[in-house]
Amino acid sequence: MSLAQRLALLKGNRNPNPNADGTADGRTDTNRDGADDGGIRAAPLPEPASAIVPLVSRLRRLYLDGGSDGSSYTSRRAKRSDAEVAAHLRGDVIAPGLIQVIQHIPLASWHGKVAFSELAQVSLAALGMPGEALPDGLLFLDTETTGLAGGTGTLPFMVCLARIQAEQLQLGQWILTGFAGEAALLATVSGWIRPAAHLVSYNGKSFDVPLLVTRYRLARQADPFANKDKAHIDLLHLTRRACGHGWEDCRLQTAERRLLGFIREDDFPSHLIPQAWSDFVRGGGVESLNAIAEHNRHDVLSLGALLATIARIYAEPGHEAAHALKIAQSHAVRGNAPHAIDHLTRACRELDEAALLFLAKLHRQQGQDEQALAIWRQLRQNSCVAGIEALAKYQEHVTREFEAALELAEELLRLDPASHIHAKRRDRLCQRLARPKA
Asked: Rounded to the nearest 5°, which phi and psi values hold at 159?
């Protein structure tokens, strides 16, 4: 068949041959190897289905009905109704395409080795949060999405929130069974977010909240995160700073295992969640959706237990998992030098040179010169250049003990002979000592 014939067939023309003899150009057909067929025309080819079926219908049959052979997903795997899915998840249908699950967990319950009742003693000031929030002002947030890339193509198909009410932790979960329920999900979730004083998440500043803000914007709904007075406690950063220095990674499940003593059993793998929801929407079973919901609830419950643990680590010095220097630096930046000193002096592990230097600096800032001098002399015994240099500066500029300072400058040059700074200090001190005394 010539190219002209094929194009005509694709356009849906049953008689693509413009000439009376049935050929495109008035000549007899030739077979595929170019030989003449002797004037015997081949029987007309059957018209392909693509010539008469509109493109939209073909795509719909391919992607929604399961294939071009007439079979369909709905015939092979009938998608459950929202009511059936809600019954399986022990929830309620609150809008087309949206299921709500509400649970109440007593604060006396334990998550690993941490009781939720410890949230009543959380000190937000120790975490650098402005003011103090009552426990019922906390809102824990986690989402499950169709991908991790972010942007307008990523959809949060499951949102879980938890808040404290009286002696219970109220947990709300909203699950999309299709794209039509997103607007209702956003509106419902907004009712929980707006009254909260403090959000608590794990990497929520970089992922969950920006994603939800984008979805509110696309849905043309008011952004419940727009209130500037609403503080956000991102436990990923606090955990990494305080404890993550010796960990293989700082994933939430690693923090659960190391700090909470909580180990998940038969947990749904995070990297399979987007594909599992996509399969469910196309008519797959609801079992995977139930497993994802359980994974999502564990994430939020861990936020509550982890907040209580991390707040205690920052507030009370000497925790075995704490990195004393990192915590001290965070307190010092916020202007709480005494608390920083307390964390370093009561650290459960021996301080390294960096921590000792920072502790001496804090003592000096607080006017506690004797404590700073003791640390610098200890570092000098260990041939620590930074400690000797700090001691030399103090004796030159504060106590003006030039001979002692010169001795330290010469010691520094022996330890670090290539340093021009130490050479300049030695020369300057020699000139001072050479001047006639008044």
From this structure: -125, 130
Sole residue written with tokens 């994933």? 251
Instruction: For the chain, report the end-to-end CA distance as a whole number of angstroms.
Output: 115
Give the span between the Cα atoms of 322 and 346, in whole angstroms. Answer: 11
Query: 106 near 91, Cβ under 8 Å?
Result: no
- Residue 164 phi, psi dihedral angles, 5° rounding: -95, 130
Q: Rounded to whole angstroms, how far apart are CA atoms 104 and 58?
A: 48
Within a 10 A sphere around the Cβ of 223, how many other Cβ atoms? 16
Please give the CATH superfamily to which domain 82-315 belongs.
Answer: Ribonuclease H-like superfamily/Ribonuclease H (3.30.420.10)
Domain ranges of the chain: 82-315, 324-434
Measured distance CA(107)–CA(376) in Å, rounded:
49
What's the pLDDT tens digit per position in 35-73? 444 443 444 444 444 444 555 454 344 444 444 344 443
337, 330, 213, 93: CA torsion to nearest 10 = -100
User: How many Cα atoms sit within 13 Å of 335 on the Cβ side?
Assistant: 1
Q: Which residue has the tokens 């800032």?
A: 365
Structure letter (DSSP) for residue 36: B
Phi, then psi, of 311 in degrees rounded to 5: -60, -40
Please give the helix or strand (H or E) that residue 164 lies within, else none: strand 156-165
pTM higher than 0.70 for the full model?
yes
Fold of the CATH domain 324-434? 1.25.40
- Angle at the Cα of 152 (from 274 to 148), degrees rounded to 5? 35
CB count in 10 Å sphere of residue 286: 18
Q: Provide the pLDDT for residue 178.
A: 93
Instruction: Report whether 73 contacts 66 (CB < 8 A).
Output: yes
How high is the mean pLDDT of the chain?
A: 85
For residue 285 the two structure tokens come to 């079973």
pLDDT tens per residue, range 201-236: 999 999 999 999 999 999 999 999 998 888 999 999
Helical segments of 194-315, H only: 209-218, 235-243, 252-255, 273-281, 287-315
**Rounded to the nearest 5 degrees, what angle is found at the Cα of 96, between the Cα atoms of 90 and 101?**
25
Q: In the numeric block, which tokens belong to residue 170?
A: 């109220």
Angstrom distance (rounded) from CA 356 to CA 344: 8
- What average pLDDT score do residues 85-99 get? 97
* pLDDT > 90? residue 9: no
Map residue 95 onto helix, strand or coil: strand
In this structure, the chain runs to a length of 438
Distance CA 152, CA 85 (A): 27
